[in-house]
Design a protein that fits this description.
- There is one protein chain.
- By secondary structure, the chain is mostly helical.
- The protein has one domain.
- The protein is built from 17 helices and no strands.
- The chain has helices at 2-11, 13-41, 44-65, 68-74, 81-91, 93-108, 110-117, 123-146, 150-174, 179-203, 214-237, 239-286, 291-322, 326-329, 332-358, 361-385, 388-412.
Length: 417
């Protein structure tokens, strides 16, 4: 009887989709439940600074991981456990070393960063530490998802956000009544999860002695294309916030950041679904199945994303009109613009999975470079010669272009054959 209950709750595929989606949504719901506290307690300037801080984490995580997150996700389905453990352990060296190297780099460029992007002095040690522990969290959830440890995945995800929010609120109320309290909450929650991560990989024999450094060279080689891809994803989804800060100031960045935060609910649901779908798709890809066999999965996913989009629109309208400070209400249109952009990206994301699985370095590099160039061009022209509204509309144009580009490269890889 107990075994049947466990199967129903944690092994049944439909329930797994539900648990991954609900846990991801619940984590975001907790974050959003705390958002009015931060918005109403901190100044618009502090919100703008936190926007830059969080976007630095998003931007620099692919730089310090260099494709490692892709490798530990894909190779789990291609290698034996013994060989996978060697790859996994070796791959951990890359983010650890690059996080340390980032300290002097940020210090050297501190003056232009402080002048142009409102970098704070404490960013120079906070960001490298947060980056490494954020990598640990990302690797942790990927590993649990690959192993289909649904219960542990849910517990760790909820523990991370609950610790982060609780610590942040405590720091802001009793010690630092500014952005610093929120950043410290993020760091310390990462330290706790990072500790659990190393305990977990040791217990499950994924942390082994490294004796083959050819793996490291191979990962660095693939990591270059993975790095460029992650950088492209940053430019597509996040770089506009830096342009807002540079051209329009930290107050406008605060309003824009709050709207963007609500728009990313769509992306969070997308990632939650992909926590289940990615291992399923990778297994099918390994069995040489393509669009003809899997198109129904894609159709259901797109329908789920459209349903989510409409729900997020209603939810955000209510929050802007009845929860947030009145000053934010007139900028709700930022959200409507950015939500369309976010919806298009969720469609791109599922078609990107086949390209990632194939690990075709040339295609990944070419796709990424074109996307980066297009995104920078759109962001620069709209920011410098038009206004912040056109910058928002530019995100829709960029995401539609990237979707078409991804579909083109899927065709080149014979996915639609």
């Amino acid at each position: 009887m107990l075994q049947n209950i466990k199967f129903f709750l944690f092994k049944n595929p439909f329930k797994q989709v539900g648990i991954y989606t609900i846990s991801g949504s619940l984590c975001k719901a907790i974050s959003f439940a705390a958002l009015p506290f931060f918005v109403n307690t901190l100044s618009e300037g502090d919100i703008g600074i936190l926007n830059i801080f969080s976007n630095c984490i998003v931007f620099l995580t692919p730089i310090i991981s260099m494709g490692v997150l892709y490798t530990i996700s894909i190779d789990y389905f291609k290698l034996s456990k013994e060989n996978y453990a060697k790859v996994f352990s070796t791959s951990l060296i890359i983010p650890a070393v690059l996080s340390l190297l980032l300290l002097p780099v940020l210090y050297i460029f501190r003056s232009p960063l402080e002048k142009n992007l409102s970098f704070q002095h404490d960013f120079f040690w906070l960001i490298p530490l947060c980056l490494f522990f954020n990598f640990c969290f990302e690797a942790f959830v990927i590993l649990m998802r690959n192993q289909n440890h649904v219960r542990q995945f849910t517990i760790v995800s909820l523990l991370k956000i609950l610790l982060e929010i609780a610590l942040s609120i405590g720091f802001i109320l009793f010690i630092y009544q500014n952005w610093y309290g929120r950043a410290l909450g993020f760091l310390l929650s990462g330290v706790v999860i990072g500790t659990l991560f190393f305990i977990y990989i040791k217990k499950h024999d994924f942390l082994v002695k490294i004796n083959d450094y050819t793996i490291l060279r191979k990962e660095l080689y693939f990591g270059l294309s993975g790095l460029v891809l992650q950088t492209a994803i940053f430019f597509i989804g996040t770089s506009d916030k830096f342009f807002v800060m540079f051209f329009f100031g930290k107050v406008q960045a605060g309003y824009y950041a709050v709207a963007a935060t609500f728009a990313t609910i769509q992306y969070i649901i997308c990632i939650s679904l992909l926590q289940y779908l990615q291992p399923v798709l990778f297994t099918k890809f390994e069995a040489l199945q393509n669009w003809k066999n899997l198109k129904n999965v894609y159709y259901k996913y797109i329908l789920a994303m459209f349903t989510t989009w409409t729900g997020v629109m209603v939810f955000t309208f209510v929050v802007y009109n009845f929860v947030l400070k009145a000053a934010y209400k007139e900028y709700v249109y930022f959200f409507y613009i950015l939500s369309v952009s976010s919806f298009v990206w969720t469609i791109s994301n599922i078609f990107l999975q086949f390209i990632i699985f194939n690990k075709s370095k040339r295609i990944i590099f070419l796709l990424s470079v074109i996307a980066i160039f297009f995104s920078i061009t759109v962001n620069y022209i709209t920011s410098k010669y038009l206004d912040i509204d056109w910058l928002g509309f530019g995100q829709i144009v960029t995401n539609i272009f990237v979707l078409l580009l991804i579909l083109f490269f899927n065709k080149k890889l014979n996915y639609f054959a």
